Amino acid sequence: MSYTFTLDGKVIPFADGQTIIQAASAAGVFIPHLCYHPEFKPHGSCKLCTVRVNGRHTASCTMRASAGMVVESETEEINAERRALTQMLFVEGNHFCPSCEQSGNCQLQATAYHLGMMSPHYDHFFPNRPVDASHPEVLLEFNRCILCSLCVRASRDVDGKNVFALSGRGIKTHLIVNAKSGAAGRYGLRAG
Amino acid sequence: MGFNEMHAEAVAGVVDRVINRYKRDPTCMLQILREVQESCDWIPPEAIDRMQAMLGVPRTKIEGVAGFYSFIYTEPRGKYRVLFSDNITDRMQGNRAMMERLCNNLWVERGKVSEDGLVSVGKTACTGLCDQGPGMMVNNYAIGGMSEQRIDEIAELIRNKVPLAEWPPAYFKIEDNIRRADILLNADFKPGEALLAARARAPSDGLNASNMRSWREGLPSGIGGPGATLDEIKRSGLRGRGGAGFTTGLKWEACRNAQLKAGHQRIVVCNADEGEPGTFKDRVLLSKCPDLVFEGMTVAAYAIGATRGFVYLRGEYRYLLDHLNAVLAHRRRENLLGKDICGLPGADFDIEIHVGAGAYVCGEESALIESLEGKRGTPRNRPPFPVTNGYLDQPTIVNNVETFAAAAMIALNGGEWYAGIGTKHSSGTKILSVSGDCARPGIYEYPFGISIRQVLEDCGATDTQAVQVSGPSGVCVDASEFDRIIGFEDIPTAGAFTIFNKTRDMFEVARNYVHFFQHESCGFCTPCRVGTSLLKNLMDKLHYGSGSPYDFAEIEKLNQLLQSMSHCGLGHTACNPVLDTIAKFRPYYEKRMMQQDFTPAFDLDRELSAARQMTGRDDAGAHLVTEHGGQA
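Structure tokens for the assembled complex are given below, as produced in the milestone run.
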């Protein structure tokens, strides 16, 4: 038996166990997101994919769909909140699109465009985050890290390698590499 | 060799000893890190090497956990690690001047380690000594009642490298300061009585514990000791004492009814991670009546059919650990823990204590469970809730210390007796931790329904301007609201009752709380991680005199965002102290609204402070005159 819920008035079918964002994607409806990736276990940390379910805010990547749910996503209010979250991510790290080699192929940048973000709004934190260039093939550019944990999950859950993890707490949360020196080169991190 | 260097072999020896004691169990990671640090003064890389090998977990995991907790150090912090409690009450008692004094005495910069690696002096969130502050911790042992004289003595002890164990015992004496006792703090109770009373109240047959599940399930509900015990809890109307006020009977019942997977067991967790600034009633309950709390846990285990229990004790209360373990050992000897407790067939239960390491967010039940599992204390995505999928995915109840104490008394005297105390919607008593501007700070146990005014009168508070009830995540009440009452129908509270007289600047109170939330955000979700920092920056901006009405609007927008988008209660409540004080004590903010129009937070003169410190200059020539007259 198939069930449905409504997303911004549109009827979305879903299978048992599917999350809101999974069902929406399958039906061709886009919900902005950064830490969600269909191939990895949902994390629910960036909060970009937040929707209103029966009037309550919840992350659509972790919330299971249930029959008859009334979900709002593309409202002015929610998109304003998503925009503010994106701005927060921009000022928290060091994201300077014009000089960034990822420009044009960057989900953060694309999300900012999608949400109509015209400025960072908040004061930049300008954190001091040295890059890790110790590896011959991989450059770890921590200035661009938004702590989405996708690399952590890919390495841990798919490759079974545990190359990355998050350490620290709060605004000092940061990505670490599995090496005594803390540098990628020492781990022998190999591409492919 | 410096103070913090040990031979790799010695480190490995320490790690092996600790890990073997924890049976090489990676879920005890935080306990292992904590105990290794007690021997090594920090977690050297060699210790992580050894843990990685012994526990078979990746280095990233160990470092990720170690990095999360404020009291675990992956860099040397000295042989003596001094942390001053920095709650608003400690500030009011002059902790800043004392910290300065100690730093000067020891020739050490705040937050840094001394040149010789002997000592570091820093600050930490409220240590729960508000009634006998300012408080501090040395190597995670609490010391209260700081005075200039005591500071000088401590500096001398540190300089002479006197081991902590040889410091005057008077320093470590923490008072209970019980000013008003009621049914809990006056409990006339012998260990074991509550459990036997619960059993005696059950119908004549079906007395077996509910963890003999196959047998119990053949019985109609409500029959048998466990069912009868649960009924008494429900009849009592008991609600959680940790602040949220969830109905205890419902939580227990949900856990009891949760399906058990093969090899799983039900778990009882006592939340003693009393981190809300201004709260210290669990400290006193655990110090004065640990048996009552353990008995309450045992009653809960009996009612829901749990066989394993934990107390999650906040790191600041490390000094209570040995005593609590001794009480547990005694209860085991008396058959109040272990197998067939009190002769009840199948009533098997034991309790172990895990000690936290400086992370307020671990007071949130799912973060607490993560921490118990030896992980970073990040709140989980819910549902599923702990009652079905808690500790290691097993059905788990997490209740506050005071809730368990009350449960023991309900088992002893019955639900009806308990429901007759307090008000219609809030049965029983509430223990308040009273501190701040009053003559008699300490612990006050009242039946629910007591007015703020009455508490203020009883503790000898005069000229009171405001009371922060339930800490920064609670509410700030002003003089016009003093007739409001403590209770779930009006002002619910986890127990903090912090009093501010008319000389206090309520803006600075709010700013202190905002700094607290910023420090304690776990960093998992974007809105709280970045939002609490933005809020802190805004409050600092106002503090430095660059505030304008624009910033008010920004604070309100941030609040809305944190409310709707945050992952857990920490983010939801982080703006409360600011919004409350803006609404009720606006003049303190207006005094700081020196700017009509938007003014940047950046202040060139303030940025030069590092240069001034380096050159040792603070004369007029070393300052810039700022246009808008901000603090130069």
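Chain A has a mean pLDDT of 93. Chain A has five helices and seven strands. Further analysis is deferred to the final report.
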